[in-house]
Amino acid sequence: MFATANLVCGLTDSVTAFVLARLVAGAGATGMIATGLGLVAAASEHDTHRRTTATWWSVAMGAGIALGPIGTGLLDRIDGWHLFYLGLALGGALLGLAAARLRLPAAPRRSGRRLDLLGFALLTGALATGVTAIVGFRTGAGPGTIALLVAALLLTVALVVSQRRGRSTLIDPALFRHRGFLAATLAGFGTGFGVIAAMSYACSHLVLGLGMSTLAAACLLAAWSGTSAVAALVVARVAANLPGPAQLAGGLTGTAAGLLLLIPATSPLGMLPGLLLAGAASGVLNAGLARQAVATVPAERAAMGSGANNTARYLGAALGVTLAATLVGHAPTLGIGWQRVTLVTGVAAALSALGVLLLSRAHSRAADPQPALAKGDR
Hints:
The chain is an all-alpha fold. It has twelve helices and no strands. Mean pLDDT is 82; it is low at 368-376.
């Protein structure tokens, strides 16, 4: 799915076909991200091995985020943007062939759970209409925007009802009784709404606001993404002695500080300290998210924990990026808009860190029984 959709993106001249193919590619990428960490956890023999492999998963993510924009910046100089999608198609095909040859661990016995297609449809509809409604508010709250907002609320209510009463659910409801899982999920959402949303808009600020080329902007942003990959490797050496919630809260606090440092920056050089700090903290945070996503659920639910955490992360990113565009659209200048974006996302990251600490403290006091958790992951 991922390879085929990107092949269409690289070959088509139709805007409609390109957008539809991107949607399909996104669905394929979602499947890879949600199951990838679950497979990593399933292939791990013990807790220490699981932490190490989760760290390398985070390093790979950071490296991809760093190299991808630089590659597109280079291709942009020769007007070869379509080559990027052809490269993704080739990479997806090679990954599929490699996966077919891998010897994966034996699958656990099926628990009898069915796919919650209704829940998936309701969640997708609620997200799509909600994000579209937020975008619509940029130009005023017209009848269409109000209708989309109402539809999003109704779909959300229907989703909650289906999850409470349906036989099949997207996530095992029992997981929501464990504060460790809630803390990890909140951290994922805060990561998306905070640093990911800000960095997703940062390239537009660098190009449109500061007049940089796409390649120069990508290289500057590598100070964030590249540092996150290196930091994830460094933190692996001390992760065994660092409680999981502390790693999440520390990473969120660091990204918040880095984002707030970007507020007064009015030049690429002035942005460098904030980008480096946010990058180092992102490495700590990403490694912690990968660790806690599988450590706060039973071993046989590793893929579910990974899927829930990544869903929370990209839900936060979708809402955060949409809000960022809205803030910039209503600002008198692009510079002021960027300052508002970094302020809001920085505060969101800080509040998420506080929420993780409160949930973790409540978890320690309540001493919730957590199945198959490694020492320090609570």
